[in-house]
Specification:
By secondary structure, the protein is mainly alpha-helical. Helices cover about 60% and strands about 10% of the residues. A 3-stranded mixed β-sheet has the order 1-2-3. The radius of gyration is 19 Å and the shape is elongated.
Length: about 130
C-alpha cells in the first residue's frame, strides 16, 4: 500500500510541476519520466502513510491554486512531451484525477486484504 501511495505522491507532484511549467514557459519540452515512475518499495518504506497523505493533500492544494488562476487561455497552454506530444494544462489536470482514481481502487483492495491489527492498550500507572 505504501508503494502505491508513494507512487501517487511522486506522479502528482510531477503533474503539477508540468502544469506550472506550461504556464510559465512557452510549450517547454518535457522528457519522459519513464522508469522513474516505477515503484520503489525500498524507498517507499522510508515514508510514513500520514506523511504521504499530507504530501498528496499539499499537491492537490497546489493544483487547486494553480487552476483557480487560470482562464480558458491558460488552460489551453501546453507542454511538449517527448513521447505523448502536446499536452495542455487542462489535460494534465484531468490526467491527474484519472491517475488518482485508477490507484484508489488498488489501494482500497490492499487495505481490505491487510490483516486487522489488534489494538494494544497499555495502562499508565505510577511507579513505586
Amino acid at each position: 500500500m505504501v508503494a502505491h501511495l508513494a507512487h501517487l505522491l511522486r506522479v502528482e507532484r510531477l503533474y503539477v510541476d508540468r502544469a506550472r511549467r506550461a504556464l510559465t514557459d512557452h510549450e517547454p519540452l518535457i522528457t519522459s519520466s519513464g522508469l522513474g515512475n516505477d515503484d520503489d518499495p525500498a524507498r517507499a518504506q522510508h515514508l510514513a502513510v500520514p506523511q504521504i497523505i499530507h504530501g498528496m493533500q499539499a499537491i492537490r492544494r497546489d493544483l487547486d491554486a494553480l487552476l483557480s488562476g487560470c482562464d480558458d487561455l491558460a488552460l489551453a497552454r501546453a507542454i511538449r512531451h517527448e513521447v505523448r506530444g502536446r499536452i495542455t494544462v487542462r489535460e494534465i489536470a484531468v490526467k491527474m484525477v484519472e491517475h488518482e482514481d485508477d490507484h484508489a481502487g488498488a489501494v482500497a483492495a490492499l487495505v481490505r486484504r491487510a490483516p486487522s491489527s489488534g489494538r494494544v492498550i497499555i495502562p499508565l500507572s505510577r511507579r513505586s
